[in-house]
# Entry
Amino acid sequence: MVAALLGTASCTDKFLDEVQRTSRSTQWLDTPEGLASMANSLYLAYNYFFQNESHYCYTNYGTDEFMVAGDNSNGMWNDYDARLGSVVQPRVNSNTQAITTFWNELYKYIARCNIIIANEAALDGYAQKNTVLGEAYFCRGFCFLFLTMQFGDIPLVLEAAEEPSREYTRDSQQDVYAQVISDLEAAHSLLPADASLATKNKVTKYAAAHYLAQAHLWRASEINSAWNTSFQAADLAATIQYADEVIAAHPLVKEYNDLFGNFTTYDTSITETNSEIVLSAGNSDAETTYRKGNWGLALFTAWYQSFPLMKRDLAGAREYQRLKTTPKYAYYLYDLKNDSRFWKSFKTTYAVNNAGTGKITVQGKEYAANAYFPSNDGEYLSSMYIINRDDYGQKYFKNEVNVAKAPSSSSYTRLDYRTGKYIPNIMALLIYDDGGNVIGTSMTPDYNTLLAPLNKYLDGAVNANNRGDGFRDGLLARSAEDYFFKAEAQIRQGNVDAGLATLKPLRDRAQFKAGEKRDAYVDGGNAYHNNAYKSSLKGFEANCAFYPMNSYYYSIGGWDDAAVRAATDATASVLPVVTSANYPKEDQAIMNQLGYSSEFDKAMCYLLNEKSREMYGEYHRWMDLARTKTLEKRLYYNDQAYSTTLVDVTGSTKDITGTTYAASANGGSFKASQHYLRPIPQDFLDNIYKDGKPLTADEKQALQNPGY
# Structure
């Protein structure tokens, strides 16, 4: 056939010189269309934060909010032990995250930004010139900001690479912050001022303002105290200016569940279209598009598939169980009676989803499981976590709860007032003996899987069984954080009560409304009921672990009194107005534990507590604690990192069976002189030159952060 075709066509120059049009060359970047395409590719930088396991290691582990759950793949990020170095080794398994992850990835996008900025002249006359340039400046400033928050001094690479280069050094944080602010200011002047739903996954002027507020506040923080004195006054004023701009453009949603819980389907749910979103990373569940899954789906989960009458399903998610809610902090942080954010941020109940024909004994009577629980589709309560702090007086006794660390048998001791059925499995924060004395807890500090998990990223709309990643948008910035930026700037200016008052709208929203059922519950797993793929997922069509009720009344009281529940639901809850003379009791307890007494320290302690209540697990915590130099004190609440001896919420070193908690071999390894910065990756040090030669061992050490 080839011979025949060649025989019918002359070998003209036109034929021989035919140009292949299916690929691009670097010359395309001399055109406006090519640069616009590269600017579009920058959005993958924001997706990258949610596409792997690294993000939680860099931001959630090793803080007061989270410790290691059942999977210890990345325990070194939590414990700060010797394995967390310029090379993370020895690796526990293939899931262990390297120190190079974000370094390499973000510099890749910085390189693209440099190409766009260097070729600005090619955009002259192009209708979208400002947007393309603004996206490049924003992304470069964003990447440099994240890198300096993690690594301190970093290379400021500002020129487009035209050939390979090995000559790099580290620029000072002072210079880095100046560049970050310059880039974000350029983006702020160039990007469209559009806060509409059409731009929820696009960088805008307000996204630039959000990160400008953050950059100015970070530069003014304790981590930079050796050099930032001359910047502080202007930085704090700028923080307030930019935070106010974002707050005005992106009003808070009225209902906290609209931020995460009321997810029903991709792209149209209020959770992905609300006004509070400043920047989110868009994902896709379409088979024909680049798949950008959100790993938050499985990382925060607790083990549930072997609980009585349960199996893994879409609504409950695949249990990667990497992150464990810290019992000493999370369960004692909130005003559980009046602050709805705990009940809307954490999952305390699971539904029966695997009642078969086997026999169960309930209150002395034998039933077929599927006769007592005639539905596996989220209708009946299977397992419950009771957050029964002693200040609420709800006592659960040893014979009423499951004391095993992998519950497999049922107790049926308390009635589910919603359905009139007894509950198979109960775990309690405090477990009592018959004399009314606390003797243990289900929420232990060791590497176990019993915890009320963070629910913010559950995704029951996924298109396949056992997915480790979902397709919900990754939330990078919401305007609630700008309230914290502003409040902290005011506190640092000496206007403590003004700063505390700035946070009042968030606390007002957190209160239960009059008529709101306090035990009503929703999370993203509930999207299972709207799942477009459900009918094709064999064995998953009628199995739903989502249960529409939480354990509020079982924890606070009133579970056995319908009149009490009705009267409570009818009234709005009230959170106290916070002033420097009136901190909530939960905050005062934390201040006392951490030894804070000055007006400034107490105000900052409260602000960091309140930020947890509002933004628990939203990938900010490590940077907040590191830049305020409060990380070392707050590790008290992270038992695994704090000490080699694990102590539970009852003060005991033993579980309820009398077994001593296994020693945390790497606990107590945090060093303030070292761990407020990450190690510079060895790959970088090994591959750069000085004066045309590889670095010597001493030169590498000189470029490394202290202690590594």
Remarks:
- The chain is about 35% helix and 5% strand.
